C-alpha cells in the first residue's frame, strides 16, 4: 500500500532518519526526455532549511536517477529515484521515544505494527513526501508535453490571507511554542475532457484520496466544495454555452470525469502537531505523562505541503491520461 | 475501475434503465451467516418512491443472491447480488436525449466514451448505488460480528437543521422547480486501533476517495475537517490519557491509521442537478439551447445518499480489517 | 481473486449447483458492436450434453446481457453476463458429501474455507468456466476487429492423435469406469509485435498463469516448450530475415513481448478425476474410506477445455492490447 | 508491471549497465528479524564470475538495505534493497547496438517502446533478477519461521544428468561457441494446506506465471506435469489415507489450493541465446545481416536460474500465506 496509481504507478520508500528516501515509477511512457534537472527544482521547493518559517533541518535533497532513463530519455522501464538522508539528528528523539506525540502517528503505528521507528516520525514523517514530489516532477514533465500545467497557492493561514500577515501569524505561533494551519488550493489547467473512470476511479474520488492521504490534511473540496450546500440547483449548475461552460462551480469534474474546465481542489491543513508547549499524553507502558516536542519543526506546514499537493494532482492526472488511451 | 476495495472487492454493474443492477463481492470471508434478509433493509432505505421528498420512481429493489452462499453461510467464493430494474420510464428521456443536462455527467460521458446510455443517466445514475448498498449490507454484517457499527445523520439541508425545517425547505424547492443540497455525517463506532495502510492506503485517504466517489458529493471532512484551520496546534491536538484520548478532533484517524476512537466523516452534497427550471445548455451537435429536466427526480438527495455513504464507510472498514490480519 | 486481467478485467461468479454462473467485464472499450449472438456460439461449444464423449448434464447455457450494452454497442461501462443453471441433480452428491474425491478440490477447499458447497464441486466445478468463455467471446469480438484470431486443437489424447482413435480411447476408458487426459494447443494469429509488460506482466507469464489456472491443466509450454532442452542455442534461436523470422521455436514471444509471429501455447490436461472405479480416500471426520464417483462426468475433458483455453488466450491478448495503448 | 505479488509486493528496477539494480518490498510483516546477511548468501549464489561455467562478469553484488528495517527488525514499511552495478563493459555492445540478437528481446523491446538500452540487454538482462533474488531471500526468512523450506535442483542439461556429464556438456558447447539448456525442479516442503485463491489466483496459476516470467523459461510443469497425459484417471489420482495422501502426482496442489504435500514445479530452460557462432539477423534499419554475440555470457543458464526460481517460488508462497490470514 505504498504504491499510488494504476497506469503510472509510484512506490515510495524510506524513513525520516533512515539511509535514504525515494521512489520507483512504473508505467512511465517511453521516449520522454528526462534528467535529474527536471526533478530537482520541485524537490528544492519542498526541502527544509530555506527560511525561518520552516524546519531548520538542512537537506540538499539531491536526486539520483538509478534506472529507466537511457541517454536522456525514458525507456518504458521502472524509474528509480534516490535521495540520501544527510542531516539526521536522531538523538533529538531519544528523550521522547517512549512517549506518544499527540496529533502524530506514534500511537497508531505502534498499535498497528507493534514496532515503530521513532526517529523523526520514521515512515510517517513528511520526509516520505520526497518520493512523491520526485515522481510528481516526472508526471509534470509528461503533462507539460500535453499542455497541462499544475499550480498551487495558499488561500489562508489561520485566517490570514496576505503574505505579510501570514508570515507574522506563523512567527507569532512559533514564538509561543505553538503552530497554525491553513487552506491551500491546487489547480490544473489545460486538461482535456474525458479523464476519470466511473464509478470507483472517478477523477474527483482519486483526487480526494490523493489529497487526504497527505499528512495533516483533514478536508478536501472539489470546485466550490462545501459552499454548494447553501445554494439552489439553479444557482449551482454550470450552464453550458455553444463552446464551453458559463461557470465552473463543479471544479472541472462532472460525474467523476473531467469536463475540460480548470480542475480546482482545496485542502484543509491542520496545525503542525509538533509543538514545544507541554501536552498531556501517554507512554508506551500505558502511563499518563507530559511531552514537549523538541527537534526541528515547521510552525506551519501549509507552504511545504503545496509542492506535495501539486505532485499528487499531477500523479492523478497522468494516471488518468494514460488510462484514457484505450477508449 | 468499477471495483472498490482490495481485500473485500466489490464490482458493481448496471444502468438506470437497463435490465438490472447489482454487484459481485470477492474476498468475503467464509462462514459468515448471510441471507437476502440481511441485505434488503438497507436497500429499502435507499430505494425511491417512499415519500414526497424523493423521486416517484417505484422500485421494489428485491435482491437475489446468485452465488457464494451455501445453506445460509458464505463460502469464501464470489457473492453475486442482483436487483432487476422494473419501473423504467425511458420515454421521459427521448425528448432530451441530444441535450446535455447541466450539472450531470451527460457531456463528460459523451466526451470520454463517444457514446452514452441517456436513459435516466445510464451508468452515472444514482441507481448504480444499489450495488454499493447491497455490498455495504454484507460488509456491515461482518463488521457487526466484530462489534463495529456504522450510522449516518443529516447535519443540515440548505442551512436548515431540524426535520421540519428541512422538509419545508425541500418541498419549497420542489415547488419552485428547483433543488437543494446539504451536509451529512457518517460515524463508525467500535473500530479497533490499527486500521489503514500508510502511505497510499491510509484510512482517511480511502474514506475521502470513497465518499467523493458518491455522485453529488463535493467535499469531505475527517473529524473537525476545515474547522482545524482556525486553531492553534495546542488546541487541535487530541491529548492522550492513560486509557484513551481527551478529545477527538482527529475523527478517529492519526497518520492514516485508526486510533480506536469513533471515526467521523462529513460530506457536502450538492443540490440535485435535475431541475424543472429552464437552463442554458448545449446539444450534442454543438448548438446552444435550453433544457428543462422532466422525469422523476429527488429535490434533495441528501437523505438517499445517507445509506450509500454508510455503505461506503462499511466497505472501507471491512477492507481495512481484512488487510490488517497479516500484521 | 476471482478477477482476471488488468485493463480488460473479468470477474466470474457462480457455483455448479447454485442459481447462476456468469461474469462482469470491466474495461471493455466503448462502441464495440455486441449482442448475445456474439457470445452464445462459444458457450455452445463448451456446454455439456452434446455427445456421448461428454457429461450428460443438459444445460442450454443461454446468456443474458445485463448491462454495458446500449442499442447493440458497448458503452465502456461494466458488461454483466448471466447464465442460469437449470439441469441440476444435487441429489447425486448427497451420498458422497462427507468424502473427499481424489484428484478434486474437495479436501483443499475444506482446508481453506472450513466450508464447501459439495454439490457438483461447487465453485471448483468446470461450470465456473461459463463466465470465462462468455468473457472470452467478447474479447474475441474485439480482437477480430484488430485482425487477431484465436483457435485451438487437440494434439493427442492418451497417446492417440486421430479423431477416430481418440474417440475409441475415450469410450474405452468410460466403459472401464476410468478417464484419460491429453494435450491441446492454442494459437493466435495476426498479433502485432509489442504486447506484454516486462518484467512481471510478460505475455508468456500471463499466458502460463492463465492456462495453468484452468482446472485439470498440469503443464504449459510456449513455442517448442520442453523440447528446447535438447537443443543447442544455434538450433533453437529463431534467426531474423529482412522482413520476419526464419522459424518460430519461441512461439511468438521474446523477452515476454510478442514478436509478431503466431503465438503458440500447449497445455497438458490430466485425466478427469471423477471416475466410477472405487478409490481409496478419507472422509471429513478423518476416517479412511472408499469412494466411487457417480454423477454425470466427462471421461475426457480435453475437448471441453479447448474453448476455455481459447477464451483465456483471448483474454490475455485483449488485456495486453489495451495495456499497450499508452506507449 | 514491474511489481509481483498482491500481499507481499515486490517491485524491481534497474538495467544491466545502469547505475544500480534492486527492489522495493511492500507488505512484509513487521517484526521479522532481518539484516543484509540474510540476503547476501542468496545473491552470492546467483552472481556471475564464480566458475568457468558462467559469465566472467565480476560483480560483488553487495546489498544495501535502504529502508523498512529498524534495529534489526522489519517495521511493516517498504523495504528498499539496492545493489550497485560495478563491472560494466558497455563497450562490448557498441558493435552490435543496431543489430537484433536472435533469441533475445532486442527486437521486441524496440517494437514495444521505440527505444531500448542495448547495453547488456538493458532491462531484459538476467541482471534484473538481482532484485527478485534479494526479495526472495526476505520471503524465505519469513517462510523459514513458518517451517517452510524452498530448494531447487538441476534435473538435466542437454540430456545429461550427472554433474560431471553436465559440466563437460556445457564446456563443450562453450568451446563450440554454442550453448545448452536444461530442466530444473523446485520444491517447497512444510507448506500448510489451504494456500491459493481460486479461481484466478490459484497457487499453480501463480507459480506457472512466476516461473514462465523468468527469462529463458519455455515450459512449466506442476507435479507430474506432461506425464499425466499418458495415464488413466485411476493411475493419476492421489488416493487419500486417514492422515495424508498415498502419492503426490499432483505436486501438492488440488483445485489451485495447496494440499499440504510438497509443492513440486519443473521448468524448461532454453539454451542461452547469446552465442559466438554467427547467426542470421536484421538491423534496426531493416537490413538482413549477420551477428556474432561477444561479451561475457553463460553457455548454460540453468544453474544461475536456480536461485531465481527458488526466489519466485518463495515469493508466491509468502504472498499466498499472507493472503490466507483472513479466512
Task: Identify the notable features of this structure and list them briefly.
327 residues; homotetramer; Chorismate synthase, AroC fold; 5-stranded antiparallel sheet; 4-stranded antiparallel sheet; 21% strand; alpha+beta
Multimeric organization? homotetramer
* Distance separating the two termini of chain A: 28 Å
**Poorly predicted spans of chain A:** none
Overall, the morphology of chain A is globular
How many individual β-strands of chain A?
A: 15
Question: Gist?
Answer:
The structure is a homotetramer of 327-residue chains. Chain A has seven helices and 15 strands.
Topology:
The structure is a homotetramer of 327-residue chains.
Chain A: E1 3-4, E2 9-14, E3 20-26, H1 36-46, E4 63-65, E5 69-70, E6 73-74, E7 79-84, H2 106-113, H3 129-145, E8 149-157, H4 163-175, E9 182-189, H5 203-212, E10 217-222, H6 233-236, E11 253-254, E12 257-258, E13 263-269, E14 279-282, E15 288-291, H7 302-324
Antiparallel strand pairs in A: 1-2, 2-3, 3-7, 4-7, 5-6, 8-9, 9-13, 10-13, 11-12, 14-15
Amino acid at each position: 500500500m505504498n504504491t499510488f496509481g494504476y497506469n503510472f504507478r509510484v512506490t515510495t520508500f524510506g524513513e525520516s532518519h533512515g539511509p535514504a528516501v525515494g521512489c520507483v515509477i512504473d508505467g512511465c511512457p517511453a521516449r520522454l526526455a528526462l534528467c535529474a534537472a527536471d526533478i530537482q527544482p520541485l524537490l528544492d521547493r519542498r526541502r527544509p532549511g530555506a527560511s525561518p518559517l520552516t524546519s531548520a533541518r538542512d537537506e540538499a535533497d539531491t536526486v539520483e536517477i538509478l534506472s529507466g532513463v537511457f541517454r536522456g530519455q525514458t525507456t518504458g522501464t521502472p524509474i528509480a529515484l534516490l535521495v540520501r538522508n544527510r542531516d539526521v539528528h536522531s538523538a533529538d528523539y531519544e528523550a521522547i521515544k517512549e512517549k506518544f506525540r499527540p496529533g502524530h502517528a506514534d500511537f497508531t503505528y505502534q498499535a498497528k505494527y507493534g514496532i515503530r521507528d521513532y526517529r523523526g516520525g520514521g515512515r510517517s514523517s513528511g520526509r516520505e513526501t520526497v518520493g512523491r514530489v520526485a515522481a510528481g516532477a516526472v508526471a509534470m514533465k509528461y503533462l507539460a508535453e500535453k499542455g497541462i500545467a499544475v499550480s498551487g497557492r495558499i488561500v489562508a493561514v489561520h485566517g490570514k490571507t496576505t503574505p505579510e500577515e501570514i508570515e507574522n501569524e506563523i512567527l507569532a505561533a512559533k514564538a509561543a511554542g505553538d503552530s497554525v494551519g491553513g487552506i491551500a488550493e491546487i489547480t490544473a489547467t489545460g486538461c482535456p475532457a474525458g479523464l476519470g473512470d466511473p464509478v470507483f476511479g472517478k477523477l474527483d474520488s482519486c483526487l480526494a484520496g490523493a489529497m487526504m492521504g497527505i499528512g495533516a490534511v483533514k478536508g478536501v473540496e472539489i470546485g466550490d466544495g462545501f459552499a454548494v450546500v447553501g445554494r439552489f440547483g439553479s444557482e449551482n449548475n454550470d450552464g453550458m454555452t455553444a463552446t464551453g461552460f458559463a461557470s465552473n462551480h463543479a471544479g472541472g469534474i462532472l460525474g467523476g470525469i473531467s469536463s475540460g474546465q480548470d480542475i480546482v481542489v482545496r485542502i484543509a491543513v491542520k496545525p503542525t502537531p509538533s509543538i514545544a508547549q507541554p501536552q498531556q499524553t501517554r507512554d508506551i507502558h500505558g502511563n499518563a505523562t507530559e511531552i514537549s516536542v523538541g527537534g526541528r519543526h515547521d510552525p506551519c506546514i501549509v507552504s511545504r505541503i503545496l509542492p506535495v499537493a501539486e505532485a499528487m494532482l499531477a500523479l492523478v492526472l497522468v494516471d488518468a491520461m494514460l488510462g484514457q488511451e484505450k477508449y
